[in-house]
Design a protein that fits this description.
The complex is a heterodimer of chains A (647) and B (198). Helix content of chain A is 68%, strand content 1%. Chain A is mainly alpha-helical and 647 residues long. In chain A, α5 packs parallel to α15. The longest helix of chain A is centred in the first third of the chain and has 35 residues. With 198 residues, chain B is mainly α. Chain B contains 6 helices and no strands. Chain B is elongated, with a radius of gyration of 19 Å. Classes of the chains: A mainly alpha (647), B mainly alpha (198). At the A-B interface, α7, α8, α9 and α20 of A face α1 and α5 of B.
Chain lengths: 647, 198
């Protein structure tokens, strides 16, 4: 019986029991379906053991969308709870668990894999490479991310969800105030997926620096590749900080050390500092690649080269440096003195300058451009005003003296949603529609797409604008209810309606995928948008080896040059292509890491030790393994190219 | 596989060059890892609660021995790589083996040191200071332990497969790792022990 008590959810509710049944049924359905259609072998060979950066990108994309709905369900529950005063739908404990999970899932397990999906799929294509620098490591990165995400997601049915906020501030997150294993889940889920992210960072930097096609100097790289390079450099410098913070937090919870306690010398503010030394740059890890995607889309659909290429690169480098110098603005009111606050206030507001440079560059690209409004372009255009509202309120929050008024209110919640949703989510949706034909060989329906873009952007405004007002009126965040006399009711009801609108928008995206899969024309060229960079020079769907002949680059818009200025993109003839072999080890290692995290969450030491040994066995196996990949012969290339190009 | 013979063996193929650059970037991440540990240590160094301070528990003798052993091991692995450049696989294996033995010597002294700390009442749970101290030292020690196992795999592959571009590449990367651990130790020695004894 002991074992049931250990894994039982500490604060059960009917919703959780329903979820348990639903999860159980889904798992059974998936297993039965795979067995009935005899797809186990296909799944293993083509997906679970793949090292192809394009397939890994697609797996990231699917995971990100799943997590978008998981985090979105949390969001709807929160908005529904707050829609009317003194609502009794959720109790305080559940509300705590839901906002914690919402934040963690949306940042770590939705936004991160979404940008990783595009980095994985697009960057090697944009630089004319055949794969990333370390294909096996890339697969491992994905599986570590995925297993971390699953570990966090099973917390609400086994043992209890984390409930200390996505920032997991100590001493609140310590055993004394967070009794369930939820925060252990948080620590290990973030640790495991964080390791994966760090590996991606190393992998991508090496890929971009070492594997560019001949002629592609750093200043001839497409903007998305540049933004990915900068974001991955931030990853390599920021994620180790999180690793250490999580180790210390884990030790406090599992081994009763005193890093972040209030007794025996522990210092809870150390956690806040470590967390945000990672957490603030994390914002830019997300938003810079998003900006990169906007740059690609705006330039493509304006029919012009990107205005101010060099200043775009420069502003990203400056943003990446400043991103490490502003972390304290997340706790202006926690008593660090006027001088510290002033310094961090100034560095914070300074970030608005390079960001403004980018906004103006996009506007100047549009100016005199031949603008074609497609779904991706529509998202990019809607992004600019909405993001600017978020950015301006960010400067308001960045003034430390004024921040004493807004901190911990809905004003803050409104600000970061107004930045992250247009800044990151719109970009990902724009990229989703833009790159879909490259990934799957058909265009998503434009009419549904545009409707969705309008619904999502207007619902974003409706959901978050009211929070600015209720926040200035004093509505605190993270409160599960409020009394009627406060007058917050109307604002929260409007927010709830906006949230419903967002949900409808996201469901429409799924419908669009379904609709277009059935009805869209497969007869599109490799370059349906009349685009400018290398990823559109290869057939869609992209063959395993990306480019039959390594492209020859002479400018940023090399495909444009090839199409309209007689630049010869693919000189030479076919040669044998060397490709890496698939491997099941990354997936297996990911599973072991899952078991490893799960054992530690519940302090089960024997499985914890055996899985640790398992991890090292896998690493030893890799060290001794002889795997020199395989060659694709000229004959096979010729056959593939003829089939794909239809010539 | 195309081998460029104008370069040292470990840089001879394109994949080798990629591996080495990738590892340097990884070391960048490791620098951040240890920098964070040091930042935590410096924040907590005077927050001893009811536990002892650094001056009370640090003992120069084992630390000095550990330092000398680790510095020597960094030297011997350098000799190993020099032997590799000269193409002398035998000497290389010997120097790698000496390096790992010195690593083991370092580790046994560190284990003794840890037992000593716990014995005199400076365990992991005593205070924020001891937790930060043992965590920082322990992370370095775990890296050395990992390095010893890694080195064994390298020697084994050198023995069975000979000196190829692949094994040369692995050995060179391992030597970078080992030197890095030495550099970290110099910081630990100076800023944890020496500073703590004043």
């Amino acid at each position: 019986m002991d074992i049931f008590e250990r894994f039982a959810v500490p604060h059960p509710s009917p919703a959780i029991y329903v979820s348990m049944v639903a999860i159980g049924l889904t798992v059974i359905a998936i297993i039965a379906g795979l067995t009935y259609f005899k797809k186990w072998g296909y799944l293993w060979r083509e997906w679970l053991s793949t090292v192809d950066h394009k397939r890994i990108g697609i797996m990231y994309l699917i995971s990100a969308l799943l997590m978008l709905f998981r985090g979105g369900a949390d969001a709807i529950m929160m908005r529904a709870q707050l829609a009317i005063p003194e609502n009794k739908m959720l109790d305080a404990q559940h509300y705590n668990e839901i906002f914690t999970t919402h934040g963690t899932v949306m940042i770590i397990f939705m936004a991160m894999p979404f940008i990783m999906a595009f980095m994985n799929y697009i960057v090697p294509l944009q630089i004319g490479a055949r794969d990333v620098a370390f294909p096996r490591l890339n697969a491992l990165s994905f599986w570590l991310f995925f297993m971390g995400a699953m570990l966090l997601n099973i917390s609400f049915v086994i043992g209890g969800s984390p409930d200390a906020g996505w920032t997991s501030y100590f001493p609140l997150a310590n055993n004394e105030f967070s009794e369930s294993v939820g925060t252990n889940y948080y620590m290990f889920a973030l640790q495991i997926s964080g390791m994966g992210t760090l590996m991606t960072g190393i992998n991508m930097i090496t890929t971009i620096l070492k594997m560019r096609a001949p002629g592609m100097t750093l200043m001839k790289m497409p903007m998305f590749t540049w933004s990915s390079l900068v974001a991955n450099i931030i990853i390599v410098f920021a994620f180790p900080v999180l690793t250490v913070a999580l180790i210390m937090g884990t030790m406090d919870r599992l081994f009763a050390t005193n890093f972040f306690t209030s007794t025996n010398g522990g210092m809870d503010m150390l956690w806040a500092n470590f967390f945000w030394v990672w957490g603030h740059p994390e914002v830019y890890i997300l938003v810079l690649p998003a900006f990169g995607i906007y740059s690609e889309i705006i330039s493509t659909f304006s029919g012009r080269n990107l205005y101010g290429y060099k200043s775009m690169v420069g502003s990203m480098v400056i943003i990446s440096l400043l991103s490490f110098l502003v972390w304290t603005h997340h706790f202006f009111t926690m008593g660090q003195g006027a001088l510290t606050n002033s310094i961090f206030s100034i560095t914070t507001m300074a970030i608005a300058v390079p960001t403004g440079v980018k906004i103006f560059n996009w506007l100047f690209t549009l100016w005199k451009g031949k603008i074609i409004i497609t779904t991706p372009m529509l998202y990019s255009l809607l992004f600019i005003p909405i993001f600017t509202i978020g950015g301006v309120t960010g400067v308001m929050l960045g003034m430390s003296a004024a921040d004493y008024q807004y901190h911990n209110t809905m004003f803050l919640v409104a600000h970061f949603h107004m930045v992250i949703i247009p800044g990151v989510v719109f970009a990902m949706l724009a990229g989703f529609h833009y790159y879909w034909p490259k990934m799957f060989g058909f265009i998503l329906n434009e009419k549904i797409g545009k409707w969705t873009a309008w619904i999502i952007s207007m619902s974003t405004l409706l959901a978050f604008m009211p929070m600015f007002f209720s926040g200035l009126d004093g509505q605190a965040r993270r409160m599960y209810t409020y009394s009627e006399s406060t007058g917050y009711g109307i604002w929260n009801m409007l927010s709830f309606i906006g949230a419903i609108g967002l949900a409808i928008g996201f469901i429409l995206i799924v419908y669009n995928v379904y609709y277009s899969t059935r009805y869209a024309s497969r007869d599109i060229s490799s370059d349906p948008w009349d685009a400018r960079s290398l990823e559109w020079a290869t057939p869609s769907p992209v063959p395993e080896y990306n480019f039959a002949i390594v492209p020859n680059v002479k400018s940023v818009d090399v495909l444009w040059e090839a199409k309209y200025n007689n630049h010869i993109l693919f000189p030479g003839k076919y040669e044998n292509i060397h490709m890496p072999n698939n491997s099941g080890i990354p997936f297996i290692l990911g599973c072991i890491f899952f078991a490893w995290g799960f054992s530690f969450v519940f302090g089960m030491w024997i499985p914890a030790i055996s899985t640790t040994i398992g991890i090292f066995v896998c690493m030893g196996h890799r060290s001794l393994e002889k795997d020199h990949g395989h060659y694709i012969s000229v004959k096979e290339i010729e056959e593939t190219e003829t089939k794909l190009r239809g010539a | 596989m195309k081998i460029n013979h104008s370069l040292p063996l470990e840089y001879g193929t394109h994949q080798n060059q990629i591996n080495i650059l990738g590892f340097w970037i990884f070391l960048g991440a490791e620098i951040m890892l240890f920098a964070t540990l040091f930042a935590g240590y410096f924040t907590l160094v005077n927050r001893t609660g009811n536990g002892p301070t650094g001056t009370e528990i640090f003992d120069i003798t084992p630390v000095l021995l550990e330092t000398m052993i680790l510095l020597t091991s960094s030297f011997t692995i350098g000799l190993g790589i020099h032997a590799m450049r000269l193409g002398s696989q035998k000497a290389m294996q010997v120097f790698f083996a000496i390096t790992l033995l010195l690593g083991l010597g370092f580790l046994s002294l560190e284990v003794y040191e840890f037992i000593h700390y716990v014995h005199i009442g400076a365990g992991l749970q005593t205070s924020a200071f001891t937790a930060a101290l043992l965590n920082t030292l322990g992370t370095h020690g775990a890296h050395v332990t990992f390095g010893v196992f890694w080195g064994l795999f390298i020697i084994f592959q050198l023995k069975t497969r000979g000196l190829t571009p692949e094994t040369a590449n692995k050995s060179f990367i391992f030597s970078l790792y080992w030197h890095f651990l030495d550099v970290v130790w110099i910081f630990i020695f100076s800023f944890i022990y020496l500073k703590g004894m004043i």
